[in-house]
Design goal:
4-stranded antiparallel sheet; 22 strands; 33% strand; 354 residues; alpha+beta; globular
């Protein structure tokens, strides 16, 4: 009968109900997204032998070349994996284990980088940066989040927020002028104390040792509670955006990708603004926002993404594409999405006003 992590696990489950499910689902979606990219590039080992990547039906001669495999990066396309974030491209060479970054306005990629380099870890779709259920946002967003002893500080727009023991989620708008975070100010045990408890729990092999450890933990908790310094163990939502509701619940998910330069939240069957007002409803059987959902600026049109297929609200579809994202060009919001072109031996971009 194993008792490892009993106390720590109970505390985490008490403080963060529902969030682990979202985190696990997020990890699954990232893996699915990577498989879609591999399929689009012709790297899917699960496909039938001899199957070759083809031009998608929505491709045209007017599409933009964003990365050519025979220019600036001398490697066969089947030897890399690709990750897109905010128009920048992370390329991982399976041959030498190195990373390269092709920024959206650059002619050629930069690198090579190691997996712990800030240029690599800023890509949240890079699984080596952080696990989905324990992200270190000081690595993902070093310009905004920093460590202060055992806690974290958020510095945004000249103002400091915190310190916080846990940052469960940190979302930044497209232009990096707005942010929202889900935080817990205090925890009963620091990282160091938690590590010591974990070590002791591994050594507690008998029932007597386990009971003694439980007694010790309970005693430490009582001492902290009686220390005169009240601990705030509740989850809070903080933001530099006015009018953010604190009553949306712990299970809603916040996103800066649904609308350009806006942060919204979604729950089962609906998307809300940060005040809690519903701006869009959807059929959960038909739309999965965890995979991809984008709204037009006036909320009248939407696009969904599922397993390599982009579906528009007017019925149009585009297959064998990956990494949709929003930008703004000349005052117009644009939806971009990518595909691999065997004809051009390149990753191509399609852009539509949205």
């Amino acid at each position: 009968m194993k008792k490892r992590f009993f106390v720590v696990s109970i505390l985490c489950l008490t403080l963060m109900p529902g969030l682990q499910t979202h985190a696990q689902l997020g990890g699954l979606m990232n893996k699915v997204k990577n498989k879609i990219v591999d399929k689009a590039l012709g790297n899917d080992t699960g496909s039938k032998s001899g199957t070759q990547a083809q031009e998608p039906g929505c491709a045209s001669e007017n599409d933009k070349v964003v990365f050519e495999f025979d220019k600036g990066y001398k490697v066969d396309m089947r030897e890399i994996t690709v990750c897109i974030q905010d128009g920048d491209m992370l390329l991982f060479s399976k041959v030498n284990g190195k990373y390269f970054v092709k920024k959206k306005n650059a002619a050629s990629p930069e690198g090579p980088f190691e997996e712990n380099d800030p240029e690599v870890t800023r890509f949240s779709c890079n699984e080596s940066a952080a696990s989905d259920d324990k992200k270190d946002f000081s690595l993902l967003y070093p310009e905004f989040v920093s460590r202060s002893g055992e806690k974290f500080l958020i510095k945004f727009g000249g103002k400091t927020y915190g310190p916080y023991a846990i940052i469960m989620n940190f979302v930044v708008s497209s232009l990096k002028t707005k942010f929202l975070a889900q935080v817990i100010p205090d925890v009963m045990f620091t990282e160091k104390e938690g590590a010591n408890l974990e070590k002791e729990s591994k050594n507690a092999t008998t029932m007597a040792q386990q009971m003694e450890l439980a007694r010790k933990v309970q005693e430490q908790m009582m001492q902290k509670s009686a220390s005169g310094n009240p601990m705030d163990l509740s989850m809070k939502v903080i933001s530099n955006i006015s009018g953010v509701s604190e009553r949306l619940g712990a299970t809603v998910m916040y996103s800066a990708s649904v609308k350009y330069d806006e942060i919204v939240c979604y729950d089962y069957g609906k998307i809300m603004d940060l005040s809690g007002k519903t701006i869009f409803t959807y059929d959960p059987q038909q739309v999965n926002p965890y995979e991809g959902l984008w709204l037009s600026s006036d909320n009248s049109r939407y696009v969904t993404y599922t397993y390599g297929v982009l579906k528009f609200s007017d019925g149009k579809e585009c297959k064998d594409i990956f990494s949709p994202y929003l930008t703004k060009d000349g005052g117009q919001v644009v939806l971009n999405y990518l595909y691999f072109s065997p004809k051009h031996n390149a990753i191509m971009q399609i852009s539509n006003a949205f």
